[in-house]
Design goal:
Layout lengths: L3 H22 L3 H7 L1 H5 L2 H8 L5 E2 L4 E3 L2 H8 L4 E3 L9 H8 L20 H10 L4 H5 L2 H13 L6 E3 H6 L1 H11 L6 H11 L9 H27 L5 H8 L4 H17 L1 H14 L1 H9 L4 H11 L5 E6 L3 E3 L2 E3 L4 E5 H4 L35 H18 L4 E2 L4 E2 L8 E3 L1 E3 L13
Parallel strand pairs: 2-8
Antiparallel strand pairs: 1-2, 3-5, 4-12, 5-8, 6-7, 9-12, 10-11
Helix pairs in contact: 1-2, 1-6, 1-13, 2-4, 9-11, 9-20, 11-15, 12-13, 12-15, 13-15, 16-20, 18-20
The chain binds protoporphyrin IX containing FE (HEM).
């Protein structure tokens, strides 16, 4: 490990960590949400407390909002740009220090499209956007269905399994790996890198977690060099081959895009499937309703996304001074946008704490964000979610928990690390329906 990575941690993670931990100890609900165990076990009571403090609030590290209308409008407001961790009130000297120690190309730093503003953003998003349109994703339908069936067939015959490891993580990783031309046998390695690198989306992570993430990043960088070289010699039908062939992106940008698509392609959908299973098992009446009205499955997936958002939060930084409800946001200030809070805003969703697969406006959630950074993979994620959940509950009508599910210790991404299940009787595969 390069010693300079320690300085990097100190500048972008260590300083906010000290502030957040001090505030959390004093009982500050925002710090508890971002840095405490409640943030990943059950964030919703803290979110409601913070909602009660106003439409936009000032916290120790940034402004924050839990309001649907405000989150949506800030996501679409060109006076705001994407967050850089450096803007979370970290002293300038510290950020300068971090800049001296660049990291390999990765999903959470420029030129990754996730963290750059137009016009550069447009140039990074456009070359891959056509692979994720609803029509392009529609062509993957048979593949998603057969991957799902193969995985369900392979579940252990003694009927007990960890849902996440054996199913929820496998559907999205199989599909995105194929889309990017990665060999099947490398999937377990990607899952491991994903596990190590996702904490980088959070703020104030410990040094040990940061170090693990950067190690994975270095290994991934070498792997992507070799993969791109292979595709250059022998291109396939996949997205990366076409980027390599057209030469639209240089190698650095190509690797940032590849790592973003890989990570975003499975680290979020695994949570949609996992959170969905846990909610449906906790609400047998909703399972019953889906058995009686299977055409509700797409809406059920929207409700799962709303009710327990796989990405809980994002942030935007003011590009100029802006007044919101009489609160002055200065250029460079960051506003944390709680997508999970917006999704439970009572001004938009009646009885927001009720899980209702028939909810008419479930689709108004902000789980895929909004504006120029709206999730590129939303159609794919929706399709994977519907097929995976419908097939799982169709094939195993007696499915139940076999112990308490364990949450991942993450703040931004929200899902389970382990969900022990008993499968029960196997039923025949239900007829595919139009999704
Ligand atoms: C349930 C699953 C998913 C959820 C909840 C989700 C959520 C999100 C959110 C909230 C953002 C925007 C963050 C922001 O505005 O700052 C985003 C961006 C993105 N997502 Fe997803 N995502 C999911 C699945 C996928 C999949 C399957 C892919 C496929 C590769 C994908 C690719 C991307 C990409 C490339 C971006 C960056 C877009 C940009 O910055 O222009 N996502 N996603």
């Amino acid at each position: 490990m390069k010693p300079q990575y320690w300085f990097r941690w100190l500048s972008v993670q260590g300083t906010p960590r000290v502030v957040l931990r001090l505030q959390a100890r004093r009982g500050d609900p925002f710090a508890e949400l971002v840095a405490g165990p409640a943030g990943y076990t059950d964030p919703y009571p803290l979110i409601e407390r913070l909602r009660g403090e106003g439409r936009i609030i000032r916290t120790a590290i940034a402004f924050a909002t839990f309001d649907h209308e405000l989150c949506r409008s800030l996501l679409r407001d060109n006076r705001f740009g994407v967050r850089t961790q450096e803007s979370f009130r970290v002293p300038k000297s510290m950020t300068k220090l971090a800049e001296r120690f660049p990291l390999p190309p990765n999903p959470v730093e420029p030129p990754s499209m996730l963290v750059i503003d137009p016009p550069e953003h447009t140039a990074m998003r456009k070359p891959v956007a056509s692979a994720f349109t609803p029509r392009a994703v529609g062509r993957l339908r048979d593949r998603v269905e057969s991957v799902t069936e193969e995985l369900l067939d392979a579940l252990p015959s003694d009927g007990s399994a960890d849902l996440i490891e054996s199913f929820a993580a496998q559907v999205p990783i199989a599909i995105i790996s194929e889309m990017l031309g990665f060999p099947d046998e490398d999937r377990a390695m990607f899952l491991d890198w994903g596990d190590r690198m996702t904490p980088l989306l959070d703020l104030g992570i410990p040094w040990r977690v940061h170090r693990r993430a950067l190690r994975a990043m270095e290994v991934m960088n070498d792997y992507l060099d070799r993969h791109i070289e292979r595709l250059r010699r022998d291109p396939g039908e996949d997205i990366l081959s076409s980027l390599v062939t057209t030469g639209e992106l240089d190698d650095h940008a190509l690797k940032a895009t590849a790592s973003l698509l890989m990570g975003a392609g499975f680290e979020t959908t695994v949570n949609l499937i996992g959170n969905g299973v846990v909610q449906l098992l906790a609400h047998p009446d909703q399972q019953e309703r889906l058995r009686a009205e299977p055409e509700l499955w797409p809406n059920a997936v929207e409700e799962i996304l709303r009710f327990d958002s796989p990405v809980q939060t994002t942030a935007r930084t003011a590009l100029t001074d802006v007044d919101i409800d009489g609160v002055r946001i200065r250029e460079g200030d960051t506003v944390v946008l709680s997508l999970a809070g917006a999704n439970r805003d009572p001004a938009v969703f009646t009885e927001p704490e009720r899980f209702d697969v028939g909810r008419e406006n479930a689709k108004d959630h902000l789980s895929f964000s909004s504006g120029v950074h709206v999730c590129l993979g939303a159609s794919l994620a929706r399709m994977e979610g519907v097929y995976a959940l419908r097939a799982l509950f169709g094939r195993f009508p007696e499915l139940r928990l076999d112990g308490p599910p364990q949450r991942r210790e993450l703040f931004t991404l929200h899902g389970y690390h382990r969900v022990p299940i008993r499968l029960g009787r196997r039923a025949a595969m239900p007829e595919p329906s139009v999704v």
